Amino acid sequence: MNKRMLLGALLIGASLMVTACGSSQQPSSGSQTPPSANRGETPEASQVEVTVYRGNQDGTAIIKEKASISKIEDTEKKMDALFSLLKEKGKDTAPSVPQKVQLNSAALAGGVLTLDVSQDVQSMSSTEELMFLKALPATVFDNFPDVTTIKFTINGEAAEALSQTDVSKGINRP
Asked: Can you give the residue ranges of the GerMN domain (predicted)?
């Protein structure tokens, strides 16, 4: 009988110790606050909605879609984010910028956005070039209200044409 009582007392003691060790302590007043309260913003506040245009599945038209990106004030970084989105598939859309084409830089001066792209732009198929020249300007003009003209350079050199289309005068806002 003594062994049973001793064993019972040990079990009760052990369960009390486990319960006490597993309990969470309440923070003292003002010691911790949720991360969003410290910054005064929610995670959604750092995101902005943008418009991107991607190709339809047969490459004959562009389709307007909405996407979210981090809030970016810098023109080059924002353009880089948009360019990346144009390389992705949408729910029912195809990328409008081929994966091989890279954006080297973007600079905005006096309403003219100059996009320096990789030489791979010159090897686009006619369908890829058509989608690129429809979707990219539409995306730029919807997301950069100050842009009036888009000009292209290829690896830092003025572009006369991309693959087949003359872009020497730039693309003006409609």
From this structure: 79-163
